[in-house]
Structures are given as C-alpha cells and as structure tokens.
Amino acid sequence: xxxxxxxxxxxxxxxxxxxxxxxxxxxxxxxxxxxxxxxxxxxxxxxxxxxxxxxxxxxxxxxxxxxxxxxxxxxxxxxxxxxxxxxxxxxxxxxxxxxxxxxxxxxxxxxxxxxxxxxxxxxxxxxxxxxxxxxxx
Length: 137
What we know:
The chain is α/β, with parallel strands linked by helices. The chain has helices at 54-60, 67-78, 83-91, 110-119; strands spanning 8-12, 24-27, 45-46, 97-101.
C-alpha cells in the first residue's frame, strides 16, 4: 500500500495568529524569534535540532549568493545527529505539518530546505544524497 503524500507548508512566525489550523506547527529556527513571547507562541513546539549549526548559520548570513553552497552543507548536516533524528521526527508526522521560521527571505532559508526535503518523493530517506533536490530556489 502506497502511503498518502503529505504536503509540508512553510510560514513566517510573524504571519501566524493564535487560531492556527489543524496539524502540527513547528518552529525550525535555532534562535527564538525576536519580539515573540514563549508563553504566547502559537505553535506546538520548537525543534531547534533540525536548524543549521551555529557555524553554518553564521557563515551563510543570509547571503543569497551563498545559498547553493549553504544548501549543500546544510543537507550534509541533516544527515548527522542530532539533526537527522529531528528531521526523521518531522518526517514521521501524520497529518498536516507547518514549518515556521522567523527569516525574512523564506525562499533562501534553512526552513525551505527542510520543507523541500520533506516534500520530495521518498521523504528524507537519504538527505545526504539529495543535496541538489529542489535546485537553488
């Protein structure tokens, strides 16, 4: 029996209100978003282990010219602990899944890379082998 294909959504935390729809809503940034109270956060959990390492995040610095190399390095990180376990946790979600990020440029973000990995056929079975998946967004 073929599993039903789930589509993973992506939203900015600043665009989310308290009335989130059904499903699992997960913040996937390493840093807590500015101006958002942990008490008032409208999402279900914070899974920072799936975020890029501090060194990679600082190297990238949201420089779009570095995005393809960032994607390659980040996908490699996602194949190692603890990121691999966090990614598998997301992949095992049944029902709707929304990834949340605070970044302004969602198209060139770590959250977009995770979304693309989770939405590709086969999910996350071999993250290290899918570095080129989704192109350079």
